[in-house]
Specification:
Its cofactor is [4Fe-4S] cluster. By secondary structure, this protein is an alpha+beta fold. It has 2 helices and 4 strands. Strand 2 and strand 3 (about 30-35) form a beta hairpin.
């Protein structure tokens, strides 16, 4: 499942450089996560790094983009391929 950033985001700029897939970018008002690039850090780290560093805990799983661990790993393989 891809992650999503809620409107509680304070634009602190901490999450964007932590994303190994470049899935996080500045949106119109807050940072956004591209679900086609988000693997929840599968293949890179044990835990999603953006969630680890977010000071306001505004990043959560996006129920609209539900994916199993195996699907996230396949997406990771395509991204590095």
């Amino acid at each position: 499942m891809a992650l999503i950033i809620s409107d509680e985001c304070i634009n602190c700029d901490v999450c964007e450089p932590e994303c190994p897939n470049g899935a996080i970018s500045q949106g119109d008002d807050i940072y956004v996560i591209n679900p086609s690039l988000c693997t929840e850090c599968v293949g890179h780290h044990d835990k999603p790094q953006c969630m680890e560093v977010c000071p306001v805990d505004c990043i959560s799983k996006d129920p609209v983009h539900a994916e199993e661990q195996a699907e996230l790993y396949q997406k990771y393989l395509k991204l590095i391929g």
